[in-house]
């Protein structure tokens, strides 16, 4: 069964993002239920995992967006140390995380998570988001500009 | 240290693809991949709890089919107007024959109502139907747009086949949900006296327009006579003006 094969990686990935086991389990459950209800056809298991991966990411983003600043920062701190980001990246994330999520639209926030937090390369982002690499590039530039403005505002204020 | 640098260059997604054996690579797992693999082994995966199959008509008809609701339901069903589809060309005439009763229901937010000429359906409403035939028959359902172009997925049409015993009401196994844009959808139920038990193969194409040819192809492998079929059509919602 798909859940037996892909459930643990999906849970692990979500747990990294949200930091709480019960929340991660709920997100993964909902993603698989959605999959079961929509019954999309995947030519390969890899495509099925990309779908689940994306579904969990978006649900995790929704969850994180609704959290208070304080708890999110705590989770990002533990997330960063787990995934292996260096100190500079971790600090940057802590300073901008909440503002970034609120300033980006859904796709941009998703791309930000993949690139800045989970370290997906552009090809992997294109695969998971089912878009072209060119679009990934374009979105990435847009996200970088928005983050730059957020940082400027942060330093200025 | 070099290994750690390499590990950081792989993403969690990439690590999972390698661990799941979904990435084409003969290279051994990196340190981060081995660590993640171990983490996955130790993760407690809760049992997947699936909701009741809401798309199944029999389940959402439970309430309406309950003993108390049955009397009212039957009364409403008996008063349902069965509309005869006006096909596109004169040679496409199919004559309703035999005694067939079709009941169409719609579900909005868990409230199930019989479909009547006054029903105001909208996006998100789920539609289901049950059929009663006087003789042993097979039934299919099809959804078309206002011009009778078939909207239903061909596989869903094949899968809708219902074997009817004389006088026994049977519900189609699945419902469908109205979605935007409004296409002036018609629900078309085709009921044919049963011939041979052969069924249509799912790969067979039946056409894209509801007409004589469509019905003939749909039932051909069942060796049913198109001229004996009865069909009932329901204009679920009008096109916006």
What can you tell me about this protein's structure?
The complex is a heterodimer of chains A (157) and B (241). Chain A is an all-alpha fold. Chain A folds into two domains: 1-66; 74-157, Arc Repressor Mutant, subunit A. Helix content of chain A is 84%, strand content 0%. Chain A is built from eight helices and no strands. Chain A has helices at residues 2-18, 21-38, 45-65, 69-83, 87-103, 106-117, 122-129, 133-156. With 241 residues, chain B is α+β, with helices and mostly antiparallel strands. Chain B has two domains: 2-42, no CATH class; 57-235, Coagulation Factor XIII, Chain A, domain 1 (Distorted Sandwich). Chain B is built from eight helices and nine strands. Chain B has helices spanning 2-9, 12-19, 31-42, 57-60, 62-65, 67-78, 154-159, 212-220; strands at residues 100-108, 111-114, 126-133, 137-144, 162-164, 170-171, 176-177, 186-193, 230-235. In chain B, strands 1, 2, 3, 6 and 7 form a five-stranded antiparallel beta sheet that branches. In chain B, strands 5-4-8-9 form a four-stranded antiparallel beta sheet. In chain B, strand 1 and strand 2 form a beta hairpin. Chain B is elongated. The termini of chain B are far apart. Chain A binds chain B through residues 3-9, 11-13, 15-16, 25, 29, 32-33, 36-37, 44-46, 49, 53, 83-84, 114, 118-121, 124, 128, and chain B through 4, 7-14, 16-17, 19-20, 22-23, 32, 36, 39-41, 43, 45-46, 48-51, 55.
Looking at this protein, list some descriptive labels.
heterodimer; A: 157 residues; mainly alpha; Arc Repressor Mutant, subunit A; globular; B: 241 residues; alpha+beta; Coagulation Factor XIII, Chain A, domain 1; 2 domains; elongated
Write the layout of secondary structure elements.
The complex is a heterodimer of chains A (157) and B (241).
Chain A: H1 2-18, H2 21-38, H3 45-65, H4 69-83, H5 87-103, H6 106-117, H7 122-129, H8 133-156
Helix pairs in contact in A: 1-2, 1-3, 2-3, 3-6, 4-5, 5-8, 6-8, 7-8
Chain B: H1 2-9, H2 12-19, H3 31-42, H4 57-60, H5 62-65, H6 67-78, E1 100-108, E2 111-114, E3 126-133, E4 137-144, H7 154-159, E5 162-164, E6 170-171, E7 176-177, E8 186-193, H8 212-220, E9 230-235
Antiparallel strand pairs in B: 1-2, 1-3, 3-6, 3-7, 4-5, 4-8, 8-9
């Amino acid at each position: 069964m798909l859940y037996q094969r892909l459930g643990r990686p999906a849970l692990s990935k979500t747990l990294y993002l949200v930091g709480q086991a019960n929340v991660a389990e709920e997100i993964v459950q909902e993603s698989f239920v959605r999959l079961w209800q929509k019954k999309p056809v995947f030519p390969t298991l890899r495509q099925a995992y990309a779908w689940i991966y994306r579904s969990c990411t978006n649900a995790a983003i929704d969850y994180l967006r609704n959290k208070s600043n304080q708890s999110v920062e705590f989770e990002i701190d533990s997330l960063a140390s787990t995934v292996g980001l260096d100190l500079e990246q971790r600090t940057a994330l802590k300073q901008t995380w909440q503002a970034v999520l609120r300033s980006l639209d859904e796709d941009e926030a998703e791309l930000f998570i993949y690139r800045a937090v989970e370290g997906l390369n552009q090809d992997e982002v294109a695969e998971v988001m089912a878009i072209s690499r060119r679009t990934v590039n374009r979105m990435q530039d847009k996200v970088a500009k928005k983050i730059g403005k957020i940082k400027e505002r942060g330093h200025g204020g | 240290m070099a290994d750690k640098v390499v590990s950081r260059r792989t993403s969690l997604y990439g690590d999972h693809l390698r661990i799941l054996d979904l990435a084409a690579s003969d290279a051994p797992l990196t340190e981060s991949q081995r660590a993640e693999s171990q983490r996955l082994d130790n993760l407690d995966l809760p049992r997947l709890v699936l909701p009741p199959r809401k798309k199944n008509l029999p389940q959402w008809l439970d309430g309406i089919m309950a003993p108390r609701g049955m009397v009212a339901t039957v009364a409403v069903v008996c008063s349902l107007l069965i509309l005869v589809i006006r096909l596109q060309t004169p040679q496409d005439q199919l004559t309703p024959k035999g005694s067939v009763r079709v009941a169409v229901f719609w579900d909005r937010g868990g409230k199930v109502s019989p479909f009547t000429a006054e029903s105001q359906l909208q996006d998100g409403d789920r539609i289901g139907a049950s059929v009663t035939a006087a003789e042993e028959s097979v039934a299919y359902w099809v959804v078309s747009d206002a011009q009778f172009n078939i909207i239903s997925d061909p596989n869903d049409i094949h899968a809708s086949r219902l074997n009817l015993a004389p006088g026994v009401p049977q519900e189609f196994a699945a419902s469908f949900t109205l979605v935007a844009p409004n296409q002036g959808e018609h629900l078309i139920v085709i009921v044919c006296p049963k011939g041979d038990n052969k069924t249509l193969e799912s790969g067979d194409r039946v056409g894209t327009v509801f007409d004589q040819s469509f019905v003939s192809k749909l039932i051909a492998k069942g060796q049913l006579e198109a001229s004996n079929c009865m069909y009932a059509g329901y204009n679920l919602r009008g096109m916006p003006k």
